[in-house]
């Protein structure tokens, strides 16, 4: 392959840019082709070394390969170049994983998972712990359900935002909900991990500042997959106005 063929041309990159723009619409950042390939390489290396995050984190990390598939499917001008870059990584991934419930490529799981992931894989009912900061009004509505679900979103609230870190939820509850004499609460709840695979985590900072974006019209289904009660784990009181 010549030097000119070693990277997509400007014309090819224009087509790719449109695909990356569409991927950005459902995410908190605009991916780059090099970033996606680098992310896939790093994940494959993690899997080969013994991936040891939860099952939700594992399938969330696999979204990087799903985004590369979108590039392959929707940007034919760069398909050959991208495929040449990722095919060796795909082969390594396949060698380091085994089929789980289906033969789908991205349903494969590590052959030698770390202890946390191994435990989740052995438990068909594995759950992921999430957190949601709320104010007094939302907490009262949660209490009315017997702490079993979250209230419906208002018309001006198209997205429901649970977060993955208790520290992040505390920060929001303290800085946003607990204002002008009001209180902010941190709720904790568990959701079926397999169900959560449809909601990739969106990073608004580091790995500890991540949230899920659940469309309001999917909230009923989301709440149906909550396991156990919604608990209040912290309360912050704001200074009077």
Describe the structure.
This protein is of the alpha+beta class and 241 residues long. The protein has two domains: 3-121, no CATH class; 124-237, ADP-ribosylation fold (Alpha-Beta Barrel), CATH 3.20.170. The chain has ten helices and nine strands. Helix 4 (63-74) packs antiparallel against helix 5 (76-96).
What keyword list fits this structure?
two-stranded antiparallel ribbon; 9 strands; single chain; disordered N terminus; 3-stranded antiparallel sheet; about 240 residues; about 45% helix; 10 helices; alpha+beta; 2 domains; ADP-ribosylation fold
- Helical stretch tally: 10
The biggest beta sheet reads: 3 strands, antiparallel
Give the overall form. globular
Give the SSE string. Answer: HHHHHEEHEHEHEHEEEHE
Structure classification: alpha+beta
**What is the strand tally?**
9
Helices and strands in order:
Layout: H1 10-24, H2 33-49, H3 55-61, H4 63-74, H5 76-96, E1 97-98, E2 109-110, H6 115-122, E3 127-135, H7 136-144, E4 159-160, H8 166-177, E5 183-192, H9 193-196, E6 202-203, E7 210-211, E8 214-215, H10 219-224, E9 226-237
Antiparallel strand pairs: 1-2, 3-5, 4-8, 5-9, 6-7
Helix pairs in contact: 1-4, 2-4, 2-5, 4-5
């Amino acid at each position: 392959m010549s030097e000119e063929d070693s990277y997509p041309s400007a014309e090819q990159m224009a087509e790719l840019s449109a695909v990356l723009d569409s991927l950005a619409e459902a995410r908190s950042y605009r991916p780059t082709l090099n970033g996606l390939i680098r992310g896939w390489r790093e994940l494959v290396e993690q899997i080969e070394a013994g991936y040891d995050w939860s099952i939700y984190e594992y399938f969330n990390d696999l979204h990087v390969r799903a985004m590369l598939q979108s590039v392959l499917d929707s940007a034919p001008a760069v398909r050959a170049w991208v495929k040449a870059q990722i095919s060796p990584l795909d082969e390594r991934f396949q060698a380091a994983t085994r089929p789980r419930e289906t033969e789908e490529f991205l349903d494969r799981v590590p052959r030698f998972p770390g202890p946390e992931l191994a435990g989740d894989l052995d438990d068909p009912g594995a759950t992921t712990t999430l957190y949601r900061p709320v104010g007094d009004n939302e907490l009262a509505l949660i209490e009315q359900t017997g702490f079993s679900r979250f209230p419906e979103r208002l018309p001006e609230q198209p997205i429901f935002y649970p977060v993955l870190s208790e520290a992040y939820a505390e920060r929001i509850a303290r800085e946003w909900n607990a204002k002008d004499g009001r209180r902010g609460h941190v709720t904790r709840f568990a959701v079926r991990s397999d169900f959560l695979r449809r909601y990739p985590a969106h990073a608004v900072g580091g790995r500890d500042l991540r949230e899920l974006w659940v469309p309001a019209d999917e909230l009923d289904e989301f709440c149906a997959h909550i396991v156990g009660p919604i608990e209040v784990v912290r309360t912050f009181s704001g200074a009077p106005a």
